[in-house]
Amino acid sequence: MNFLRTPDDSTAVVRIMGEFDQFLTDSEVSGIADPKLRLTFDDDTEQIRPTRRATKTITYQKPSRSLARSQSSSVVTEKDREKDVEIIKSHSKIAHLESQLYSMESSRKRARVEQDMECEIQRQELNKKSEKMEDLMKSVQYALDQEKQAKEQLSDIKKEYEFYKNKADKKIQNLQREKLKLSSEIEEVKEDNGRKQLDLRNALTRQEAENIIIQNKLDESEAKLETFKRRYSEASKQVVEIEELRNTARNATLRVKELEQQLSRQEDAASIAMTMQSQLSRYRELEKQNLKLEEDNRYYRETNESNLLLKEQRDSMAAKLKRAEERIKDLSILEFENEDLKKRIKHWEVEDASGNTKTASPVQLTHEIAKLQKSQVVLLEQQSDLKSSSQIHEAARQKAETELSAALKELNILQASESKHKELYQRLQRRLVLITAERDGFRRILNVFDNNLSANYDSQLRDRVQEAEERLASYSKHVEAVESEISQAKDQLASQKTIILELERQLKEEKSKCASRSTVSTATDNEAKAEIKRLKEENMKLAEQLEIYELRKEQMHIQGYYDPTKTKVLHFSMNPTSFARQKKVEEIEKLRKENDSLRLKIQALEGGKLPASSSTAADSLQTSPEISASTTKQVEEVKAQLSSSELRNQRLKEVFSKKIQEFREACYALTGYKIDVLRDKQYRLQSMYAERSSDDLLFESNSKGEMMLLETDFSSQVRDHIETYLRRMNSIPAFLSNVTLDLFSKQTTTIVIN
C-alpha cells in the first residue's frame, strides 16, 4: 500500500483513522490483542497500561483534528497527509518496539527463573559436598583415633617387652648366681678332697717313718739270714740245674707249638690264596658293575636335580595360578557388583523418568542417608569396641600362652639342671670309686703295718676295730635316714611333676576352650599361674633338699661308709692276700724269735758268758753291719728310683694333660665345637654359639666306623639341615657348618636388636 498516493475520496482517511481507533478501543476493552503480549506478568502490567492510555489519547486527538479540519475546510493539503502518514508509521513502529520490549521482558523473567533453578541445584550440590566433607572428616577423625589407639597399644607392647626383658635378665642373673654357687660348692668339694689327700699323705709319711724304724730292726735280723743263705746256696745250685732242664723242656715244647702254629698258618694262607683267586676272578665283573652303577648314580643325580628344579617351577606356577584364580574370582565378584549397581541406577532412572511413583525429594534422601551414615558410624564404633575387646582378650590369651611357654621353658631348664646334677652325681660316684680304691689300698697298707707291730698292740687294735664298728653302725643309721629322706623327696618331686603335667594338660584344655569362646575368663588362668608358681617354688625347694641329701650321701661314701643292709662284703675262703698276710706274720714271728735269741746271745757275750761253741754266732755278728749297710743302700737306691719314676710319671701326666687341653682348645677355636667323650664310641658336640648349655648334638660310631647322629632336643630344631646335608648329601661337616652359621646369625641378630 502506497501511503504517499492521494486517495480519490477525501473521506477515506477519516474512515481509516476511525477504523484504527475502533481497533484500538476494542483491543483496550478485550485486553492486549497482540499474541506476543498475551503473557501476563504481575510485575510489569502497571508499567504497560500507562503507555496504552497515552497511545489512546494520541489516537483520540487525531480524529478530533481531522473532523475540525474537515469542518473548517474540505480540502487538505498534501503536506498534512504526509504528516499523518508519518504519524501512522511512527505509531506502528512504537507498537513494534513495545512488542519487542514485552518479548525481552518475558525472556528476562524466564532467564531469572532458570537462574534461580540453577542456584537451587548448585545449593543442593554444595550441601551434598559439605555432607561428604563432614563424612570424610569423620572418617579422618576415626582413622586418627585408630592411629592413636595403635600408638597406645604399641607403647603398651613396648612396656610389656621391657617388662619381659627385665624378667628374663633377672632369671639369667639368678641362673648365673646358681652357677656360681654350684662352682663354689665344687671348689669346696675339691678343697675337701685336697685336704683329705694331704692328711692321707701325712699319714703315709708317718707310716713310712715307722716302716724305716721297723726296717732298721729287720736289718739286724737279716744278718742271721746270711748264714741260712750259705746253706741254701748248694740247694739253689741244684735248683738252678733243675730249672735249666725245665727251661730246655719248656723251649722244646714251645718249639713244637711254634711249628704247629706255622703249619696252621700255612693252611690258612693256602685257603686265603684260594679265596683271593676266586675274588680276583670276580673282580672284573665287579668293576663293570661298579662302572654301570656309577653311570646310573650320575644319571639319577642329574634327574634328581632336574626334578628338584621342576618341582620348584611347579610350586612357583601353582602359586601364580592360585593368585590368578583369586584375582579372577575377585574380578567376577566386582563385575557382579558392578552389574547390580548398574541395575539399581537404571531402576532409579526409570522411576524418575516415569513419574508414576512418588519419589522422595533429594533433601529427604540426604537426610535418610545422613541417618544411615550416623547409624553406620555407631555400628563402626561398636565394631571397633568389639575389635578392641577381642584384641584385649587375644593379648591376654597370648600373654597366657607366653607365660605357659615360659613355664615350660623353666621346666625344661630344671630338667636340664637335673640331668646335669645327675651327670655330676655319676662323675662324683666314679671319683668316689677311685677314692674308695685308694682308701682300700691305704687300709691294706695300714693292716700290714698293724700286723707288723708287736703282739701288745692287739688290745688297742681290738679297741680301734670296735670303735670303728660302732662309728660304722651310727653312720649306717644316718645313711639310712638320709636315704629315706631322699626317697621321700624324690616321691614328692615325682608327685609335683605329675601335678605340673596335670596342670599343663588342664591349661591346654583351657586354651582350646578359649579359642572356641570369644571371651576368656582370666580368673582360672590366674589361679593356674599361682598354682604353677607355688609348685615351681616347692619343686625348687625339693630339688635343693635333694641336692643337699645327695652331697651328704656322697661325702659319706667318700669317707668309706656303706649301708650294711644294702651292701655285703664278701670274704674269699682261699684268699691269697690272707695267705700272704699269714705267711708274713709267720715270718715276722720267726724273725722276732731269732731276734730275741740273738739279743740274749749279745747280752751273754757282753757279760763274757758265751761258750766256745758260739764263735760262729760272733762271726755272724761281725758280718751283720756290712750286710745291713748294703741292704740299706739297696733300699735307698730302690726308693730313689721309685721316687724318680713317680716324678717322671707325674710330669708325663701333666704334659699329656696340658697337650690334650691345648688340642681341645685349638679344635674348639677352629671348628667352633666342644667335643666330649661320653662313653665308648659316643661323642657330644656343643657349639660356641649355642643359646643354651643343653643345645648339643650326639654322635655314635657304629661297627663299620661310620658316625651316626642320635636324637636330642636340639637335633629336633634342625631337621631341615638333617634332611638336606645328612640324608641327601651324606656330609657331616656341611651339616655342622650350616648349624654353626644359623646359630651365629641368630646370635648376631639378637645382639643387634639388643
UniProtKB/TrEMBL annotation:
Name of a matching Pfam family: MAD
Gene3D superfamilies: 1.20.5.170, 3.30.457.60, 6.10.250.90
Chain intervals with Polar residues compositional bias: 612-630
A biological-process GO annotation: cell division
Keyword DNA damage carried by entry: no
Top-rank lineage group of the source organism: Eukaryota
Keyword Methyltransferase: no
Compartments in which it is found: Chromosome, Centromere, Kinetochore; Cytoplasm, Cytoskeleton, Microtubule organizing center, Centrosome; Cytoplasm, Cytoskeleton, Spindle pole; Nucleus envelope
Region of interest (Disordered), residue spans: 610-630
GO cellular component, one term: nuclear envelope
Major localisation: nucleus
Keywords, comma-separated and alphabetical: Acetylation, Cell cycle, Cell division, Centromere, Chromosome, Coiled coil, Cytoplasm, Cytoskeleton, Isopeptide bond, Kinetochore, Mitosis, Nucleus, Phosphoprotein, Ubl conjugation
Coiled coil regions in record: 114-351, 458-552, 581-608
Family: Belongs to the MAD1 family.
Role: Component of the spindle-assembly checkpoint that prevents the onset of anaphase until all chromosomes are properly aligned at the metaphase plate. Forms a heterotetrameric complex with the closed conformation form of MAD2L1 (C-MAD2) at unattached kinetochores during prometaphase, recruits an open conformation of MAD2L1 (O-MAD2) and promotes the conversion of O-MAD2 to C-MAD2, which ensures mitotic checkpoint signaling.
Protein name: Mitotic spindle assembly checkpoint protein MAD1
The species this protein was found in: Actinia tenebrosa (Australian red waratah sea anemone)
